[in-house]
Amino acid sequence: MEYHLAETESKFADLIWEREPISSRELVQLCQKELSWKSTTTYTVLRRLCDRGLFQNEKSVITSRVSREAFYQKKSQQFVKESFGGSLPKFLMAFTGGKRLSKEQTEELRQMIEDYGNQDSQENQDRPR
């Protein structure tokens, strides 16, 4: 799956994620109100995002096949992989712009790393030998 949405696709996806399940009729009305779209535009964009595996339209009820959280998690991972060779430390250096992190931010990152490290250790212990 491609983890990229154009700006208008992102707004459209957010409308669905915030209200799902939503009927196609309700979605058309919502897009007319929020995005000033005609029904044909709504159905075209919906079909495109369904074809990409993001949503499904069954019996005129739209639901997500990928949650908003999962989509943005994969999008972030894809960005780090493509832009920084998958290196989280390189990404963090670029993201912070060389500025010092606050004590709270440092502690939060430390805790995340520790939790993730513990998760890896637990998975290794659970594997049969």
Question: What report would you give on this structure?
Answer:
The chain has helices spanning 7-19, 24-35, 39-51, 68-84, 88-96, 103-126, and strands at 22-23, 55-58, 61-64. It has two domains: 7-66, Orthogonal Bundle (Arc Repressor Mutant, subunit A); 99-129. It is 68% helix and 8% strand. α1 (7-19) crosses α2. The chain is mainly alpha-helical and 129 residues long. β2 (55-58) and β3 form a beta hairpin. It is elongated, with a radius of gyration of 20 Å. The longest helix has 24 residues, at 103-126. It has a three-stranded antiparallel beta sheet with strand order 1-3-2.
Q: What is the CA–CA distance across the termini?
A: 34 Å
- Fraction of residues in H or I helices: 55-70%
**Major sheet characteristics:** 3 strands, antiparallel
Structurally, how many domains make up the residues?
Answer: 2
CATH superfamily descriptor of the largest domain: Winged helix-like DNA-binding domain superfamily/Winged helix DNA-binding domain
In the CATH hierarchy, what is the class of the largest domain? Mainly Alpha
Shape: elongated
Sheet/helix structural class: mainly alpha
Number of DSSP helices?
A: 6
In order across it, which strands form the biggest sheet?
1-3-2
CATH architecture name of the largest domain:
Orthogonal Bundle
Sheet-strand content, in percent, reads: 5-15%
CATH fold-type name of the largest domain: Arc Repressor Mutant, subunit A
Poorly predicted sequence stretches spanning 5 or more consecutive residues:
none
Strand tally: 3
Radius of gyration: 20 Å
Elements, N to C (H/E): HEHHEEHHH
